[in-house]
């Protein structure tokens, strides 16, 4: 995605007009014309949603109205039971309705956080599918894409989510095209990793309806001076995260992070970096304060912890998916790192 792609018109990006409402008239630039009806946005708030991700998704629309001097957007909120729903920090939002009726909106975004795999509301998943059949463009931020996937609404679509949820999602939905991009807009599905990535996704959507000038004004209003494009990575570079500048060591770290479930030998890692095993071990000790084996085990155990919390895989299946050759070895290593066995992790989650 290039900088110019960020500012495509709505019809260029989606290739269709949404039902049930007729799309507003557009001027010659492809942006919505003055006097058009407000575009309707809905937010489904799942208990424990991340307030920052919600704010980053919501505030660009409010700013669009304020800065344009027109009601370009109108929004409503939904909660699964129609009652006030608390964010992960305890702040509660009063919704406009529950799931007793459809929501008459053009776009609907699911906001979730914490561990979305624990949200098991069949009524909510059915309501989301019904909304999609009405022609609503459906999106999600942070942990929301996990819920969209469980509703069957990401089949055949490119999608993304917060990096913490990706390993478990790929285990549960191996055929889904999940990426590690900051956000993905694929036809009538919009998914974001959450946080400031939600802000960037909404700016992209606003730009496609109202043009670059308004988006630039919104960005500057929020002191957001650089537009984050979709292909940019969610996480910091390994150089910044570990404070490492040595090229061969960075190459090895990148290889280990890309596939933590693999168990490459020290010799193969050193050969890929073009240095000796002894030199590579010295680089790990001097830069990371650990051995190659300790670092690799840490990555595998972090992956295992996410799988235990976010999937229904057995302990043995988690062990194998994380690169351990036996449940006993996995259990000992897990207890040594986290102070309790793998089964207790799932109960705590």
Amount of beta strand: 5-15%
Superfamily at the CATH H level of the largest domain? Class I glutamine amidotransferase (GATase) domain
Count of alpha/pi helices: 15
| Total count of strands | 10
Instruction: Enumerate the spans where pLDDT stays under 50 for 5 or more consecutive residues.
Output: 1-30
Mean pLDDT: 85
Describe what you observe in this structure.
The protein contains 15 helices and 10 strands. It is of the alpha/beta class. It has 2 domains: 5-221, Rossmann fold; 238-348, Homeodomain-like (Arc Repressor Mutant, subunit A), CATH 1.10.10.60. The strands form 3 sheets. Strands 2-1-5-6-10-9 form a 6-stranded mixed beta sheet, sandwiched between helices. A two-stranded antiparallel sheet has the order 3-4. The protein has a two-stranded parallel sheet with strand order 7-8. Helix 5 packs across helix 12, helix 6 packs antiparallel against helix 7 (212-221) and helix 9 (247-258) packs across helix 10 (266-273). It starts with 9 loop residues before the first helix and ends with a helix. Residues 1-30 have low confidence and may be disordered.
What characteristics describe this protein?
two-stranded antiparallel ribbon; 349 residues; 45% helix; 2 domains; globular; alpha/beta; Arc Repressor Mutant, subunit A; Rossmann fold; six-stranded mixed beta sheet
Can you describe this structure in just a few lines?
The chain has 349 residues and is of the alpha/beta class. It has helices at residues 10-14, 51-68, 122-133, 144-150, 166-172, 196-210, 212-221, 238-242, 247-258, 266-273, 277-288, 292-310, 315-321, 327-338, 342-348, and strands spanning 39-45, 73-78, 85-86, 92-93, 107-112, 137-142, 158-160, 177-179, 183-186, 189-192. The longest helix has 19 residues, at 292-310.
